[in-house]
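User: Earlier you gave me the apo prediction for this protein. Now I'd like the version with pyridoxal-5'-phosphate bound, so I can compare the two side by side. Same sequence as before, with the ligand SMILES added.
Assistant: Got it. Here's the input I'm using:
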Amino acid sequence: MKESIKENINEILSKLENTEAKLIAVTKTHPLEKLQILYDLGFKTFGENRVQELAEKQEKLPKDIEWHLIGTLQKNKVKYIAPFVSMIHSVESFSLLKEINKRAAQNERIIDCLLQMHIAEEDTKFGLDEKELYEILENEELKSFENIKLVGLMGMATFTENENQVRSEFKKLKTLFDKIKSNYNTENIDFKELSMGMSGDYPIAIEEGTTLVRVGSAIFGSR
Ligand SMILES: *Cc1c(COP(=O)(O)O)cnc(C)c1O
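And here is the structure of the complex with pyridoxal-5'-phosphate:
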């Protein structure tokens, strides 16, 4: 197991070399031993999609791991991750942002957040449309949120064999990202991260200018 994890991660890291993109190892459903293997290889940036699992793993593993929440977050659970989470990729409402700001303030922290956009064809996937995105960016109250930073966008492409479709969804998200990056610059809006690309499509995402790829099964095998 250890050898295959090492091989897989080295292969992914080699594809990221000389690109803008950094790897987030998606560790959801995998036991602590596997996370420890990555840690021992010197790799310390992990993503989980459930708050409870994230909080439990954080408590048991070394404290210099950088934890990313990539799955849906309910307001009443923000308090469990606010003390340590390094980035939340899945912000989908202004009220959630407000709660993150409040809990970050209680912990005397500033939490980096990404707004999750709906880019896929499937309507089962979560995320904001453009109108909702601009409503958040232009909300007057946002300026008073001193304990969050909006650092970019996240999106999940349609689950399909059709590479052209995936590519065009990523292109659209990158275009939107660039537009906001050049038009919105405030104390707490500072776009620099674009989170797109998973095991099945991260090579395309890299070509389309992603900065964060979220890869699970290509490292650990299928769940
Ligand atoms: C599970 C998950 C991933 C990783 O998926 P793989 O196909 O295993 O690489 C990426 N992003 C999100 C939001 C996920 O829930």
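For your comparison, keep in mind: The beta strands are 22-26, 45-48, 66-69, 87-91, 111-117, 148-155, 189-195, 212-215.
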